[in-house]
Amino acid sequence: MTDAAVLEIRTAEPADAEELAELIVAAYGCADEGHGWTSDSALVRVASTDAPGVRRLIDEPGSVVVVGEQEGRLVGCCHVRRVGSITAQVGLLAVDPDLQSHGIARRLGTAALDHALWQLGCRWAEIEVLGHHVALRDWYASEGFRETGETRPLPRGVALIDGLQLVTMRKDLRP
User: Fold this and answer.
1) For residue 35, what pLDDT is reported?
2) DSSP one-letter code for 33
3) Is the distance from CB of 104 to CB of 147 less than 8 angstroms?
4) 149 versus 37: which is more confidently predicted?
5) Residues of 66-98 as b/e, b for ≥16 C-beta within 10 angstroms?
6) What's the predicted TM-score (pTM) here?
7) Residue 129: pLDDT above 80?
8) What is the DSSP string of 136-171?
């Protein structure tokens, strides 16, 4: 697969669940040198993402998993769902560690936010980011998200370091 390969963006189907689960685990758990700048493996116990869980997200009403595909292989995803009358929650933005930093996340995020605005009718998008992930919070800020001042602790037994918080960031979706 080359960087120049065409990225096809589409909505995930139930048959994609197994491949997506593997992709998500690789993206969030990758701590190899030179890969996975968004890895959570040093901060949290990486949750086991499985095909049935991904399939539930795909099938959930008011929810969509946007996927990026290159040369017949899934290389990234982003989940978005309505959580209020005008708010969407964005999550599971994951890209194959070998293909990170090539604009795939930006394109998938844009597609998910467009879906939230135009199909779900949402005005706002929210995402929760680990507070210690300064580079990732900065990346979301460059994409128009702003910190709301809201934080919440991770569930007991998930954080590998004391005081780890999730920081809520919000973006106005109106054109």
Assistant:
1) 47
2) T
3) no
4) 149
5) bbbbbeeebbbbbbbbbbeeebbbbbbbbbbbe
6) 0.86
7) yes
8) HHHHHHHTT-EEEEEEEEPPTTTBSSTT-EEEEEEE
Give CA–CA dist 97/132, Å, rounded.
20
What the chain holds in terms of domains, given with CATH numbers, is 8-124 (3.40.630.30)
Write the burial class of residue 169 (CB in 10 Å: 0-12 exposed, 13-18 middle, 19+ buried).
buried
Q: Are 96 and 89 in contact (CB under 8 A)?
A: no
Put residue 157 in one of left, alpha, beta given phi > 0 → left and psi -120 to 50 → alpha.
left
User: Model confidence over 36-62: pLDDT tens digits?
Assistant: 555 555 565 556 678 999 999 999 999
User: Which range is least confidently modeled, 4-8, 9-13, 70-74, 122-126?
Assistant: 4-8
Phi, psi of 57 (to 5 degrees): -65, -40
Q: Which of 31-35, 79-83, 167-171 has the lowest mean pLDDT?
A: 31-35
Q: Which two tokens stand for residue 18?
A: 């197994």
For tokens 């949402």, what's the residue?
Answer: 122
What is the C-alpha separation between 130 and 6, in angstroms, rounded?
31
From residue 43, alpha-carbon distances to 28, 47, 50, 54, 71 in Å are 11, 12, 21, 23, 33
